[in-house]
Amino acid sequence: FASGTTYNTVLERETFNGSFTPWTTTNSSGGGGTAAFAAWTIRASPYSYNGSILSNDASRFYMSNSQAQGGGNTNTILKSPVLNTIGFTTLELSFWHYYNDNYACSDDVARVQVSTDNVTWTTLTLPTSGEYNDDVPGRANFANAVFNLNAYVGRPTVWVRFQYVATNDRYWAI
Question: Which of 13, 31, 160, 168 could anchor a disulfide with 73, C-beta 3.0 to 4.6 Å?
Answer without folding.
Answer: 31
